[in-house]
Structure formats: C-alpha cells, structure tokens
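Minutes, project huddle
Topic: does the predicted pose make sense with magnesium ion bound?
PN asked that the exact inputs be recorded in the minutes so nobody has to dig through chat later. Recorded below.
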Amino acid sequence: MSGEVAAAIGTNWGDEGKGKVVNYLARMKGFGYLARGTGGNNAGHTFWYEGKEYKFNLMPCDPFGGKPLALGRCMVIDPNVLYQEVTRVLEKTGNYPDLRIDGSASIIMDWHKVRDVLMTKGIGTTGRGIGPCYEDRRNRLNDITYYDLHDDERFESRVADVHEYQKKFIEAFGGSIEPPRKITEKLAATRSLFRRYKPADISLEIRDVLKEGKNVLLEGAQGFHLSVDHGTRPYVTSSEPGILGLLSGVGLGPHDVKTIIGVTKAYTTRVGEGPMPTLQGQEFNEIIRGDKRGSEYGATTGRPRRSGWLDLPMLRHAVRKNNITDIAMTKVDVLDNFHELKVCTGYLIDGDLHEEPPSDPALLGSVTPVYKPMKGWGKLDWKSVVSSGNLPKELKDYIGFVEDDTGVDVSILSCGPEPEMTIERYAII
Ligand code: IMP
Ligand code: MG
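Predicted holo structure (tokens), as shared on screen:
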C-alpha cells in the first residue's frame, strides 16, 4: 500500500507553533520522511526534546530522530547556518543527520545579506538575505544552486560569473562586497562538509518513499499571510508559504497531499512590520507573557512579537485558499490567564462587514475588528487535561466556535511546548 502525505502550514504570520506540531507528529505518528519546501533560515522552529528547548532554522523539526530530513528545491539555503545545524545534530546524537538537499535549491551568499540590509528597509525583514536570494532565483541569471555549491569548479565559475552583477548592485546602494576569491575561500570549510550530501531530487525521493508504504510529512515555513502573492504585501516574505508553495517546493502535485493541517495559535502574534487588525496593547502582552508560557519573542531574531485576539477573517482566508482539512490550535494553555476572551468575527470597512481580509492591503491597517466575547476557562492543570482528554465547557465552546465558523475540525490541540502536551482529537493519519 502506498504511503500518505500530510502537510502542516501556518495560517497567520508565522510563529503559530508549526515546529511543535511537526515534532509531535514526526515522533508520535508513523512518518518516515520529513521535508521542508520553502523559505530559509528566516524561519525559527522551536521544539522540545528530552526536557530541553531547541530552535532550528533550516532542518525539518525532528533533527535528532534519525529519519531522512529533506530540504526542497524552492528553499533558500544559507550553507553556514546548515553547517551549524549539522554540527549540532552530530554533537547531540553522535551521527550525521540523514539530510537530503535538493540540487535545485538556491544558496544564500553573503551578498544577499548585504542587499537585504541595504535595500529592504521598512519591511522589517529578518536580514538573512532571503528576499535578495529569491530575487536572483526569479531573475534566473544570478543565483547559485546547491548543484553549483557542491562542485568545486562549477562553484568557482558561478561566483566569478555573478560577482560583477552583485558588485554593481551593491555599490550603487553604497555598500561593498569582497572579491570572488575571498568569498570562495571563506566557504571552503563549510563546503567540504557538504561533500557527504550529494544533490538530491526530493520529488523522486518522495515518490519512492511513498511506494515503500511510508508516510511523508511536509513542514511549511512562515505563515500564509506572509505569502508574497496572498499576504499582507509589502510586509511579507518572498516565498509562497501556502500549501501550493510547499508542494511545489518538494515537487508534488495538488492531489498528492491527503491532509493539510492549518496551524493556528489560539490567539494571534506578528513579528516585523505590517498591519495586524486584532492587535492589543501592553496589558494583553503582559497577561500573555505573565508566566513565561506565552513568552512571545521571535525565534529567529529575538524581536518581541505583537499580540492580539484570534482573527477568524485571517483563518477563513487561509482555510479557503489552502483547502485546509484539519486545524492544529496551539498555545491554548496560555489563554487560561484570561477571564474573558474575544474572537474577531469580521472587519468593518466604511460600515460594511467583511468576512475575510480585504484584497487591497492598504485597507487592512484601518479596518475595525468586530469581536465576539467568550468566557475564559481559567487556570487548568493541563497535564490532567491531556491525560484525561476532558476539556472544560468554555474551552469546548471556544474550539466549537472556530470549527462551526471554518467548517474544519480542530484535530490537534497543543497545551504546552513538549510533544506530550498534545491532544489529538481526531486522528491525523
Ligand atoms: P524575510 O522573510 O526575512 O524577508 O522577512 C519578511 C517579513 O516576514 C518580516 O516581517 C519577517 O519578520 C517575517 N518573517 C519571515 N519569516 C518569519 C517566520 O518564520 N516567522 C515570523 N515572521 C517571519
Ligand atoms: Mg517561528
């Protein structure tokens, strides 16, 4: 029997807890192959392992499990960051991770980081060179792929080819760039590690894994509203974090995926610039961060995340355009700090009620959110909630409200950062 594909994507602006959900699924359920398809080390994916917190930026979120970990063709890969992650896995487990790196993935070079800082002011990017690397990929002539990086001659010749373009570009914006030889020399040690990882074709690998009857888990990065095509432009990333981007990133078609999990926090956060309709003030932040469980700082940059109430227009939009089949709601435990909760059920724009974010991003900053108040569930002993599966009425009402509104089951409830603190209400695979 053929294996199945499940995917987890973020429904908001990233930081929904995909790392935790993917780590839970990877370790507790039968997935034989984990893959990312988009983004790069702008992502910060957090999970717990043996009582400790870990953050990874590139590898799929079960790096110590020994399973194949794939980096798909639509990713942008910073070799220095990947080197560090490989080293961390080696130190922790004594083994090199079983990495599969698609030869067609693009490589982030230092010049991309310089350009990110010089040219994308005002969007609040992570400064990791993500946007400029995707620009070069789209422009077709000036990117370096993992195929190039892997082969000494090819790499030197590519760096020499594109250097003049990068130099002109950067100097025009008042920056500077090292000579080609220096750039290749600096990457020599890093590149030698990658000799052990021959460029792969992730699409074919997945086909073979499925034929063997193993299940495949795809890990989205960022969130749907950071999509370059569907998000809150221009305050977005430069990849497509929705399901279509993720499938394209691993070389699968729309009918190859059976389960599309929309990971959504029980409230909303956003890091970086851009409008956020349900944003609340300092008091909300203090309650969320009150006992550290809801400590909201960007996993990649450490910047404080802005926070606010659950935003159904955003969720509906993500559900509709991604065919989400299951919702994973994370951090429900953090909301037990509130006596009363609110859920945004629509936006008013010039007196008209909108059920989804307006297509014109310029309008999003001035919408008036409409809220439904709901009763909070108060302090709970979450360990016994998880072990008994008994949810208090108020929490059931909160979940039920989201399910009725979106027409999608909240199949996974995450009640704490550790993988054990998860309730699978409906089987995912
Ligand atoms: P870039 O992806 O570095 O170009 O940043 C573009 C925008 O996306 C900025 O607002 C970032 O803060 C945001 N962003 C990118 N990746 C993530 C993520 O994984 N979580 C949250 N925000 C992100
Ligand atoms: Mg994150």
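Observations noted during the meeting:
- The mean pLDDT is 96.
- The chain is about 35% helix and 25% strand.
No decisions taken; revisit at the next huddle.
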